[in-house]
Amino acid sequence: MEQIPTQAAAKKKKSSKFLCIAPWVGSALFVAVLAIGAYFYVTKKPIVVVPAGNTTSVSTIVCDDAIVNTYNAASKLQVRTPGGDVTTDVDALTRLDATIRSKTGFEQDPTCQTILFWNAITSSDVGKATIALKAIQSLHDAHNYADSNLENTTSISVMKDSLTALSTNKV
């Protein structure tokens, strides 16, 4: 006599086929995700898609990590001589200013311009600060921003306020 397959037996038969296929699908997906991740890691291409209208452009990088680190160390307020006052390293900032200005393309690097702006503010040079602020504003309008590793990056409005305060003290 022939047995009629029950619903439970049919489910068991389907689930055993699924169990044979499921590990292969999972493994294939894992390998695909791993390969795509490796491709983006090796090529350094961004994975994030930026919606239209919110694009950024890559600016010229003249002031690299070495310059940023030098600036951060020199601009830090600390006691620099035994028994001395808390100051910035004015000599190092002056040398850094000259180094930046000697580099080709510093005008288009927002990090360089930010350093030059704050150096001008520190040395009370309204003219240089104004030129640097105009460059920063122009670069900002083109979606080029200073390196976030600078320890004193602020908004353009704060920079404008600093320049205004310096200008009014000069009058």
In words, what does this structure look like?
A hairpin with a 6-residue loop joins β1 (78-79) and β2 (86-87). With 171 residues, the chain is mainly α. It has two domains: 1-48; 65-170. The mean pLDDT is 82. The chain has a two-stranded antiparallel ribbon. α2 (65-75) runs antiparallel to α3 (90-102), α3 packs antiparallel against α4 and α5 packs antiparallel against α6 (156-170). The termini are far apart. It has helices spanning 7-43, 65-75, 90-102, 110-122, 126-141, 156-170; strands spanning 78-79, 86-87. It contains six helices and two strands. It is 61% helix and 2% strand.
Instruction: Count the DSSP helices.
Output: 6
Q: How are helices and strands ordered from N to C? A: HHEEHHHH
Termini separation: 112 Å
Largest sheet: 2 strands, antiparallel
Shape: elongated
Mean pLDDT over the residues:
82
State the share of residues found in helices, binned by percent.
55-70%
Question: How many individual β-strands?
Answer: 2
Order of the strands making up the biggest sheet: 1-2
How much of the sequence lies in strands comes to under 5%
Unreliable residue runs = none
Question: Structural class of the secondary elements?
Answer: mainly alpha
How many domains? The number is: 2
Determine Rg (CA atoms, Å). 30 Å
Keywords: Membrane, Transmembrane, Transmembrane helix
Transmembrane segments: 21-42
Would you summarize the structure shown here?
The chain crosses the membrane at residues 21-42. The chain has helices at residues 7-43, 65-75, 90-102, 110-122, 126-141, 156-170, and strands at residues 78-79, 86-87.
